[in-house]
Design brief:
The protein has eight helices and 30 strands. The protein is of the alpha+beta class and about 425 residues long. The chain has four domains: about 30-45 and about 200-345, MoaB/Mog-like domain (Molybdenum Cofactor Biosythetic Enzyme, Chain A), CATH 3.40.980; about 50-70 and about 170-200, Molybdopterin biosynthesis moea protein, domain 2 (Alpha-Beta Complex), CATH 3.90.105.10; about 75-160, Molybdopterin biosynthesis moeA protein, domain 3; about 355-434, Beta-clip, CATH 2.40.340. Strand 10 and strand 11 form a beta hairpin. Helix 2 crosses helix 7, helix 4 runs parallel beside helix 7 and helix 5 crosses helix 6. The two termini are about 30 Å apart.
């Protein structure tokens, strides 16, 4: 069905979920939406705050609202370079000629009072003189000696930024839970906030499981691989509001794995491991979680990639047992783990950027699990182009759970509904850009 939307049964936060997934209901697999909900219910917002200089607060999470002690802007000011005028002085048919009474620049203490039948030369950001009720931009004027000639009668209030029109005095410039980015830092500075109170950083301890793992730079023996998950997680956790605790790699020895698990839970708010969560004889983590006194709330999710995902609690820590395949680990952390981390850190709004895109080609697929397929953008969408123009995406090969090179070649993930047996060229799909 070219051009028809291929959408799932339900949506939440811009992502697609399928609560009617028969495989999840009838078998051991948990529907993706339910896995997300259970994982988020485990999140407990961290306590503890610190006060930082605004210049040191980039990327941190505000602990509470920040109020402006003054209205924003704090005084009526000009939005343009031009001339401040009284509309009452522009009677009859134009053009109008007014003598220039004063010159007001940004930073001047006051605009003073505009005399009757006079205009004030004014510059952007300068205080508007009392009595003026409009600013004529200089492009609509000409100058004849000490007289300005005005070609068009402005509207009342034109090109004047009124005091408090952005924010009233005492209003909240930002609410608690906001992450201090470029926009937020600018707003805080505009409100005169030299210091802000932020939540402490979320402690995330992580380790990789597997006797086959070696660190990059080490020589590989037979059956050994370099530990990509460790460095993938290090990069994913390199955020100002996270305190990462890197516990390295742990061999597939139950005694060592349990010790690492318990040590991590004692030190961190979130514990993340990779590997050892499937059903093989060397997959020890779900059993060790139970033996350590923890509980599993999510096991085996009806998603592709990422089915062998375990989410639970051990003591005060939330535990994420990510799959060992690097693409599966990447997808499950990005779509579920990162959201739990954000909720635990007190971030008020944290949802993946989602847009719509059209499949560049069709293909058959096996239904049953919601799929997050790496895709490459085909062509581009101009910001000046038609508003209805959607990007086109090329679905990369479906057998990809261990193919890190394929993941790096992708521009994002397409969300394919669990029930879809075919994707046709032109079908609309949710697209999560990287």
């Amino acid at each position: 069905m070219p051009g028809s939307p291929a959408l799932p049964a339900a949506e939440r936060d811009g992502l697609m979920y399928d609560p009617c997934d028969k495989a999840a209901k009838g078998g051991a697999l948990l529907a993706f939406d339910e896995a997300v909900a259970r994982a988020l219910r485990l999140a407990r917002r961290i306590e503890g705050t610190e006060t930082l200089a605004l210049g040191d607060a980039a990327g941190r999470v505000l602990a509470g609202p920040v109020f402006s002690p003054v209205p924003l802007p704090p005084f009526d000011n000009s939005a343009m370079d031009g001339y401040a005028v009284r509309l009452a002085d522009l009677a009859g048919e134009g053009p109008w000629r007014l003598a220039t009474a004063q010159r007001i620049a940004a930073g001047d203490a006051s605009g003073g009072v505009l005399p009757a039948r006079r205009a004030a030369r004014i510059f952007t950001g300068a205080p508007v003189p009392d009595g003026a009720d409009a600013v004529v931009m200089q492009e609509e004027t000409s100058v004849e000696g000490a007289t300005v000639v005005i070609a068009r009668r402005p509207r009342i209030g034109e090109n004047i930024r009124r005091a408090g029109e952005d924010l009233a005095e005492g209003g909240a410039i930002l609410d608690g839970g906001a992450v201090v980015g470029a926009r937020e830092a600018g707003a805080l500075a505009a409100a005169g906030a030299a210091e802000v109170t932020v939540r402490r950083r979320l402690r995330v301890a992580f380790f990789s499981t597997g006797s086959e793992l070696r660190q990059p730079g080490e020589a590989l023996g037979p059956g050994q691989i370099w530990n990509s998950n460790r460095f993938q997680l290090r990069a994913a956790l390199a955020l100002p509001w996270i305190e990462p605790i890197d516990l390295g790699a742990v061999a597939d020895e139950p005694r060592l794995l349990r010790a690492a698990l318990e040590q991590a839970a004692a030190r961190a708010d979130l514990v993340v491991s990779t590997g050892g969560v499937s059903v093989g004889e060397e997959d020890h983590m779900p059993r060790l979680l139970a033996e350590a006194g923890g509980t599993a709330h999510v096991m085996k999710v009806a998603m592709k990639p990422g089915k062998p995902l375990t989410v639970g609690r051990l003591g005060k820590a939330v535990y994420f047992g990510l799959p060992g395949n690097p693409v599966s680990a990447f997808v499950t952390w990005r779509l579920i783990g990162a959201r739990v981390a954000a909720a635990s850190a007190g971030i008020a709004r944290h949802a993946p950027l989602v847009t719509m895109a059209r499949a560049a080609a069709g293909e058959e697929r096996r239904p049953g699990r919601i799929e997050f397929r790496p895709v490459r953008l085909v062509g581009g969408v101009s910001l000046a182009g038609p508003a209805c123009e959607e990007p086109r995406i090329d679905l990369l090969k479906p057998s990809f759970s261990g193919r890190v090179a394929l993941l790096c070649a992708a521009d994002g993930l397409a969300v394919i509904p669990a029930e879809a047996a075919r994707i046709d060229e032109g079908d609309l799909l949710r697209f999560l850009p990287f």
